[in-house]
Amino acid sequence: MLQVRDLRCARGGVPVLEGVTFDLNAGEALILRGPNGVGKTTLLRTLAGLQPPLDGTVDYPEATGAYASHADGIKTALTVTENLTFWAQVYGLTVPDTVFAAFDLDGLRSRAAGTLSAGQKRRLGLARLGVIGRKVLFLDEPTVSLDAFSVRNFAGWMRDVHLAQGGCAVIATHIDLGLDVPTLDLTPFVAQADATGGSDEAFL
Ligand SMILES: Nc1ncnc2c1ncn2[C@@H]1O[C@H](COP(=O)(O)OP(=O)(O)OP(=O)(O)O)[C@@H](O)[C@H]1O
Q: CA 119, CA 92: separation in Å to the nearest integer?
């Protein structure tokens, strides 16, 4: 479902990672590991098509990918239900009722999203993944701000719903999600520096 071959990617014009190669079949996930700054976000953004690779290829079926970072992208004046309905409609879908329980949002359906706590907002941000129908997910630290119960809940949705229904996911996380999936340490793929540095305001 996802094929990555000899990928080389940059941030701020400076090569960060090179030679990244892996495959994911339907129902499989991969956890990205590595120290701060190794290039996990850069790789995820490149995989998702938000920036071009310097070299190599990324293949997955057209219009099946979605990228989510810890920036929530929540509309604060809308309720939880209205937020999910909005996102579902963008993708021409309706909200499955099961998504509220899956992300522990049942008691918060009518709350204005702006009044949610940080962790509740994060759960709403993640619930978006359950309404947009995208099969190939690129997730950057999805469980930031979540308590242990909510981390388990998210892992349960990932395993029992998303992967069980034939999705796949690449997840950068410093937190152990308790998922029985392979990890890829990016440290061996750090690119040889060939520039003095640079910055890219698009990322600031
Ligand atoms: N706007 C920018 N301009 C130039 N370099 C940047 C910019 N943003 C990040 N970098 C650098 O690019 C490299 C890769 O950053 P990236 O955010 O991909 O790492 P990461 O593995 O996701 O880190 P973390 O675990 O801290 O989230 C780092 O060395 C970082 O300092």
A: 28
- Cβ of 15 closer than 6 Å to ligand 1, yes or no, is no
Between 26-30, 82-86, 158-162, 191-195, the lowest mean confidence (pLDDT) is in 191-195
CA of 37 from ligand 1 middle (Å) equals: 5
Spatial distance between the Cα atoms of 190 and 184, rounded to a whole number of angstroms: 13
Q: Among the atoms of ligand 1, which is closest to the Cα of residue 38?
A: 21
Instruction: For residue 181, give the H/E element and its range.
Output: none
Could you report the per-residue pLDDT of 78-123, keeping only the tens digit for each? 999 999 999 999 999 999 999 999 999 999 999 999 999 999 999 9
Give the residue whose CA is nearest to atom 30 of ligand 1. Answer: 37
Going along the chain from its start, the domains and CATH numbers come out as 28-51+61-184 (3.40.50.300)
DSSP secondary structure letter of residue 190: B
CB-ligand 1 contact for 40 (6 Å cutoff): yes
